[in-house]
Amino acid sequence: MIGIVIPCYNEASRLKVTEFVQFNKEHSKYVLCFVNDGSKDDTLQQLEILKKKCTYPEKIEIVSLTQNSGKAEAVRTGINTLLNMENIQYIGYLDADLSTSLDEYTHVVDYLCNNPEFSIVCGSRIKRMGADISREVYRHYIGRFIATLISIILRLPFYDTQCGAKVFTRNLAENCFSIPFVSKWLFDVEIFLRMKIRYGTGNVQQLIYEYPLQRWIHADGSKIGLKDVFYTPLQLFHISNHYNLFKKYKVESLQTAKHFDKEPI
């Protein structure tokens, strides 16, 4: 079984109910976990309607947070909800706007299932001949700037850490989502930093695969605005500082120590 977390914040007007219902009908091995992140519109009601329309409503989980906590905590809550289901072997997340379609996401999942040497497969929005990657020009260049900063911090040759389509083995999900993240939306960076701390820089590159998406279409209504983009370098510095101190001085809570190795890296 495969579990997908779909974080939702004020998605009532653009939630693609029909597409999710059809996917549920055609893919019974998938459990969809929608996390309503304290939405102020009718998102929760739309999710309840979606579940009622599904062929397999038992494969639809709805978690509703009382207040907006940010994408990082919404995803973490959803993943830990799915981890309570013993029959789920792979767990990932996908943006509610379906910029990466559900069908495209199944290719990302299939790649991980068929290549057990990897622990995480990440969708990557590589604009190339033969692929339909549609993104506003200014977002593309801002994205490349951010990606360059992230690659420097991670010291890993990533092209696209921020694509909202990723899938993990159950074991990796248990290790990376056990404790809250520092950032509300740059948590993807933290996932890879946590992997480096646990597995070491040399080993971690062998566990990650960037899957070039065939199709990715930008959807209007992004929750990340220009203001957030301007704060990105500061956020990245804060994240980097947090994890460098964590690694150097071994300042770990008892909860963290259960999931991260204490050996020097």
From TrEMBL:
Gene3D superfamilies xrefs: Spore Coat Polysaccharide Biosynthesis Protein SpsA, Chain A (3.90.550.10)
Keywords, in A-Z order: Glycosyltransferase, Transferase
Known EC number: 2.4.-.-
This protein's record includes keyword Cytoplasm: no
Enzyme class, broadest EC rank: transferase
Domain Glycosyltransferase 2-like: 4-171
GO molecular function, one term: glycosyltransferase activity
Protein name: Glycosyltransferase
Organism: Xanthocytophaga flava
